[in-house]
Amino acid sequence: MVHTIKSLFPAVNTLPEQYRNWQPIRQDYYLIDGDLRRWDGSLQEVFSPVCIRSAEECRHKIVGEAPLLTEAAALETLGVAARAYANGRGVWPTMSVGERIQSVQKFTAAMLKKRPEIVALLLWEIGKSLQEAEREFDRTVVYIHDTLEALKELDRVSSRFVIQQGIIGQIRRAPLGVVLCMGPYNFPLYETFTTLIPALVMGNTILLKPPRFGILVFQPLLEAFRDSFPAGVINTVYGDGETVVPPLMASGQVDVLGFIGTHRVADALRAVHPRPHRLRCVLGLDAKNPAIILPDADIELAVAECIQGSLTFNGQRCTALKIMFVHRSIADDFLQRMSAGINALTCGMPWEPGVTITPLPEPEKPAYLEGLVIDAQNLGARVVNPGGGVRSDSFFYPALLYPVTPAMRVYHEEQFGPVVAVVPFDDIREPIEYVVASNYGQQASIFGQNTDLLAQLVDALVNQVCRININSQCQRSPDSFPFNGRKNSADGAQSVADALRIFSIRIVVAARETDANREIISTIVRERKSHFLSTDYIL
Do 330 and 227 lie in a common domain? Predict the structure, then answer.
């Protein structure tokens, strides 16, 4: 099996023609104050999880290089963003909503021209399959469009004055300040933009810190950022996160932290901010989403959803199913079908048609996953599927573990990879108690037909997780639905409409209902003296 996995890595002469002549990207510049400034300091090499075989060795493909900014350089970018915001009096925060929408539309048009480059970088840098990379790009564009439409609707609702108890008022939303956006490596484009775009269009200025893996994905967009927005509105911070990010937070100049990653990192960053009561956090964090398969579940459907839910993009999704509670009466049938389903998955390189299991971008991940499997085996679990848990370099073949118990690490830890943990249960109180005791509370999936049992589970879980999926895998879409979590899984709801609200604050301009005040407000509105006090209706 090791030899079979090793043979999945290509030799140079077996690479598809469109990837054979890939040239590494030397990005020795970063975006600051409307300028692509040359960086004369150190650069970090960016390697692909894809290895290229030769007669002598197997070496990771070099994707390119990116700047390793120093603390001083990172703080300079923060200062630029703060000056561009200018305590809310900068060009961008004082623009009309319509003008900001036009700027984002201009950026989106430029972004669409970069689709092939960005898709190729997702493929090379994080090992995402071609199909999944194309889907991520397209979903990001749709998200931008939906956000702008939601903003138009929000602004329409705010375009009128209200009169209550003798007070004339107009309630609109205003930006918060400087936003530090940090997305995850598994969806470096889409997840980053789910914070960046709503924060941007609401009038905030942005510090964009690309993730550790997926760092070059934004390189094709830097010119579009520069050309679409006023100087200083978007600035990029590259470099080692432990070096550049804590000083940014410790400065106290970051007003909003938009972060998707682990709760430990989020807690550490929040802790160094000198004015935590003034820091708004929008966080998408860890998850250990369970599936609960009841004895009367449609096994074929449950298996299909659980395979997709646990192994799409190698299980590297916060919404992935990471532990499965299966009623003991159907466990053998479920495991047999799961094993056959895993065996039918296509394993290979990201460009291969229909591929599901690809090399993992985190160098340390295969050894970590192997440790989880060994720990479970030592404590009584077995690997059900043939070849499960075998690894070679960055490739890890999915492992189906059963029976998983509370004594095992995989029962508690978020594996974020292709290890499928299955727990037998006899009474539905067992999975309910697991969810109640868990530190995580994002989603859960339940599979069954008995409406009494399903209703009982829904009522038990609705105060533990933020989304319950009936006879379907956990997922984020559609983006109009709230996406949030309890406990250590999130802070702040994200959806198209929710994100606009969370990156802004409601402001009221009010006056007593007198003839003089009516005339003052009417004059300001009629002569368009204010961007804020306005009855303009965006179509």
Answer: no
Token pair recorded at residue 247: 């000083």
Distance CA 1, CA 62 (A): 27
Q: What is the pLDDT of residues 480-530, one digit of tens each?
A: 898 999 999 998 878 888 999 999 999 999 999 999 999 999 999 999 999
With cut-offs at 50, 70 and 90, classify the pLDDT of residue 532.
Answer: confident
- Token readout for 477 is 């879409």
Query: Do residue 120 and residue 219 come from a single domain?
Result: yes
**For the ranges 200-209, 295-304, 525-534, which has the lowest average pLDDT?**
525-534
CB-based burial of residue 401 (10 Å sphere; 0-12 exposed, 13-18 middle, 19+ buried)?
Answer: buried
DSSP string, 249-314: HHTT---EEEEES-HHHHHHHHHT-S-GGG-EEEEE----EEEEE-TTS-HHHHHHHHHHHHHGGG
Contacts of 283 (CB under 8 A, 6+ apart): 257, 259, 260, 263, 266, 490, 491, 492
- What single letter denotes the amino acid at residue 121? L
List the structure tokens of 278.
């003034």
CA–CA separation, 353 and 351 (whole Å): 6
One domain, residues 78 and 169? yes
Which domain, by its residues, includes 304? 289-488
Position 288: which residue type? K
Q: What is the model's pTM?
A: 0.95
Residue 435 lies in a domain: yes
* pLDDT tens column, 327-367: 999 999 999 999 999 999 999 999 999 999 999 999 999 99
State the DSSP H helix or E strand holding residue 357, giving kind and residue range, or none if neither. Answer: strand 355-357
One domain, residues 350 and 280: no
Chain position carrying tokens 């009038």: 203
Residue 74: CATH number of its domain: 3.40.605.10
Per-residue confidence band for 537, with pLDDT thresholds at 50, 70 and 90: confident
User: What is the Cα 436 distance to its own chain's centre?
Assistant: 25
d(CA 105, CA 242): 34
Predicted confidence at residue 18, as pLDDT, reads 85
Backbone angles phi, psi at 525, to 5 degrees: -70, -45
Helix (H) or strand (E) holding 518, with range, is: helix 515-526
Q: Domain tally for the chain?
A: 2
Helix residue ranges per DSSP H, 113-239: 115-126, 130-157, 190-201, 222-228
Q: How many Å apart are CA 156 and CA 535, to the nearest integer?
A: 8
Q: Say how far apart CA 271 and CA 281 lie, in whole Å.
A: 12
Report the phi/psi class of residue 356: left, alpha or beta, with left for phi > 0 and alpha for psi in -120 to 50: alpha
CATH of the domain at 298: 3.40.309.10
